[in-house]
Design brief:
The structure holds 2 protein chains of 2 kinds. Chain A is α+β, with helices and mostly antiparallel strands. Chain A contains 7 helices and 3 strands. Chain A has one domain: Sufe protein. Chain: A (Alpha-Beta Complex). In chain A, strands 1-2-3 form a 3-stranded antiparallel β-sheet. By secondary structure, chain B is an alpha/beta fold. Helix content of chain B is 40%, strand content 13%. Chain B has a 7-stranded mixed β-sheet, sandwiched between helices. Classes of the chains: A alpha+beta, B alpha/beta.
Amino acid sequence: MLYTDKVMDHFTNPRNVGEIADADGVGEVGNAKCGDIMKMYLKIKNGVIEDVKFKTFGCGAAIATSSMATEMIKGKSIEDALKLSNKAVVEALEGLPPAKIHCSVLAEQAVKAALSDYYTKLGIDPAPIVGDIGDCEACHVH
Amino acid sequence: MAEKRFVYADNSATTRISDPVLEAMLPWLKEGYGNASSIYRKGREACAAMENARNQVERALGASISKHEGPTEIYFTSGGSEADNWAIKGVAHTLAKKGKKHIVTSVFEHHAVLHTCASLEKEGFEVTYLPVDAMGMIHAEEVEKAIREDTALVSIMYANNEIGTIQPIAEIGAICHRHGVLFHTDAVQAVGNVEIDVKAQNIDLLSLSAHKLHGPKGVGALYCRRGILLPNLIDGGGQERGHRAGTENIAGIVGLGVAIEAACADIPARAARLKVLRDKLIRAFDGFDHTRLNGDPVHRLPGSVNFSFLGVEGESLLLSLDGAGISASSGSACTSGSLDPSHVLLSLGLTHEWAHGSLRLSFSDENTEADADYIIEVLPDIIRRLRAMSPLWERIITE
C-alpha cells in the first residue's frame, strides 16, 4: 500500500493538532472498534472559522485527512466548510489507497459534526443546515 | 535523542537473504542453468544439487534420508502457503473417500490454513476450530476432545506468526497417533527456532518456507510421511515424484537447503542469542503505561515480541517507527486490509481497542543488542506523541 508524499507529510507533521478549551463547536466521529476516532474543535466568529484543532486516533490516512481537512476549513466561512467533501480532501492529499477512502469520509463528517454542535449550542436545529452526517458503519461501505 | 539507524525488526514477515545462501544460489542462476530432468552433465549437476538440498531439509527435520532410507518425504513447493494448501486439501480429499470429512484446527492459524479450511467447508467438510487461551496456547486435551470417528486431519501451527506462542506439538502428535488421525503442522515460523524431529513428535505433514530463514522467497517444502498418499498438486511431468509437476527452481531449492542447514545447525545457541534481544524489550516495556505483552511470556519464539499499547493505532505506530528507521508490523485493522484487527489477537480475548494498538517486533541472527536498545529508546516517545493526539487515549485517562 502506497501513501502519497502529501499524505506522509500530513501524517508526519500534522497541522492544527490539539484542543480548543473554549471551542464553539466540538464534533467526534468514528469509534474505537473500527480503529478511527476523529475529534474536531472549532472557534467561530462572525460566521467564519477562526481556529480549528483536531485529535485523531487512527491510521496514517486518518491523521493525514484530519490534518488536511482542518487546513482546508481554517479561515473559511461556515458555508464553505459545509461544502468540504471527502473527495476534495482526497484530491488535496493527491490520492488515498481505496481501503483508506473511509478516512476522508470521516474527516468530512468530523467537520460537519463540529458545526452541528455549534448550531445546537446556539439553540438552532442543525439538521436543516448541516444535513445528515451519516454514521461510522456507513462510511466503511466503499 | 539516539542517532538514527536502520533496524529491521520484522523477521517474522521475511528475512534478508544471507550472504552464504545467495552465494550458493548464484551459480544455479548463471552457468548451472540445466534442467534437472535432463540426462547430460548440466542436467545431472542440477539434479544432484537439488537432491543435496533435499537431504539438507530431511536432516533438519529428522525425516528419512532419501536414497539411503528409501524414497523422499520432502516435496519442494513455492512456499508455506502452497504446502499448507496441499497438505490439508490433499489429506481431506483422499480421506473423504473413506468417509472421513472432519478436520480439527485452531482459530488462530495462519490464513493459508484457515482459508483452506473454509474452502473445504464449502465443499461439505466439517471443521472444528479450537479456541486458544488468553496466553495464546492450544491445550492438547482440547485436541483430543475434538477428534471424532470421521476426523481426517488435525492441523495445528507449530508457532504462531503474530504472537509467537509455541504449541505442545509433540503432545498433540501423540494424541493424533493414538487416535489414528493424521497430524499436520504449519512450522513456517518454528523451523530454525525450535528443535523439530518429525518422527519423535509424530508429525505426519509439515509446511515450511525458505524466506523466514534467510533463504529466498518463492520456495518452501512439505514434509509428508512415507505411506501418506497425497493427490498430485500439479499434473504434468514427473517432477517431485510426479506429484508436483513443473521444472524445478534449482537456485531457490539450493537456497532453501543452505538456509535450513544454517538455521538448524545450532538452535539452542541461536535461540539463546535471540532471547537476549527479545527479553530486553519485554523488560523495557513491562510496566509501561497501559501496555500488555501478547502471548505467553515463556512458550514463545526466541526472537519475537508482540505488545499492545492502548490508545494508539498500529498503522500510525508503524509509520512513525519507519520514520525513525525501524521496520515492524502490527495486527491492527488498518494493516490487515480489513475492518477487523487481527483474528489472532481477538482470539486471545483482546478488545478491538487493545488489538488495534498491537506491535510485533521480530529479530533474526542479523539483529544486535544495539538494535533492541535503539527501539527501547525511540518507541516510548512515539507512543507518547500518538497518545497525545488520540481522543481514545484522552477518554482512557480521564475515565
